[in-house]
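Write out the 3D structure for:
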Amino acid sequence: MDFITDLPMSSNHNTLMVVIDRFSKMAHFIPTKHLPTASETATLFIKHIFSLDGLPESITTDRGTQFTSHFWTAFCKGLLIQSNLSTAFHPQTNGQTERVNGILEQYLRCYITHLQDNWRQYIPIAEFVYNNQKQSATKYSPFFINDGRHPVMLPGAINSDTPTTDQRLKDILQNNKIICDNLHHAQLRHKVYADQKRSPPPAYALGNKVWLATKNIKLHCPSRKLGPKFIGPFPITKIISPTAVQLSLPESYKIHPVFHVSLLRLASEDPFPGRIPPRPGPVSSDDDRYEVKDLLDSRIRRNKLEYLVRWKGYGSDEDSRVLASEVSAPALIRRFHKRHPDCPRRGRFGGGAVMCPRPHALGPRFQHIPHRRTQPTTNVSSLIRWVPWLRPRKAAHARTRQAPLACVPGNGVAHQ
């Protein structure tokens, strides 16, 4: 089950709901006025699928909001339907529907007008022709598999007393032949190009360590071009299928742990076992305090300053964001902001207010905020010292404000 969205308006419809039967390859193309919600999807399913074919044993979909909602989960559970969501960043899991989407779009592209506002009237004919076409996988048409016969589209010879009727029926017959040829060629073309980039998947086993591709993962580094292509290695905890496995990811990774094998690379064994020392535990066993090796970045999230921390004895895959109030490493903080003066930092004055040295460091969301609102309250001498780009003529008009607060001493440790 999938949706084709952002189509041109045709009779107040701009979305198509595509449903494919995995057994018979029967297709249903359902026009809708907009991208339906989970409740509307359930209504369409009952009206157009259940009324014709009954309840399925399972439904394979992508991870759209309609299919990950609590309503759809409860709907499938109540009807004893197994909901199979696609693996992370791998639409080929629902590849059968994705391929039919391409075939349908190609058919519509051949017949719609220049304004592309009449595609809805071709949907019933496209559905009939597709279901009457012999499939390469089953060697039979969906109609024949479900009904045991091929439906009659038009009688043999067509003769009537009305020339316009004859011409209309001849056009339908000719269009049917052209559509069948286009669908067949489209299926062959999709298969040829898809098979060129595919190879047999490797055989993974439980406990194998693999590298994970980062092309679909948000990295902490400033530029993806110079960032790592793979991260890990991560152990395999479950074999879902020959083409999908489940990995043991850190808790900081807010992504689905099941990946297609095309995103993985088998990690080779360490030629020098025992070279890497075991990871150190907490510095203090009372409150799980870990030692900070370095600070890599800073950001403001929900009006709070956070540091990207590299922990001593841990690799880059364990880097995590920590609130500035939980980092007790004043020497590392001073060194970080000396090397990166444009990064957001915590002000020394005004009760720990957050100071942004330059508005663009916070991104376009904060550029509309007046600069004076992000400046901490301080006296004139401190303002000139901490804001070097401030002109003397502006500093002359500054008012004397409250005295700076004392820095909180730390011992180079932080809470995790």
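Confidence is low (pLDDT under 50) at residues 348-411.
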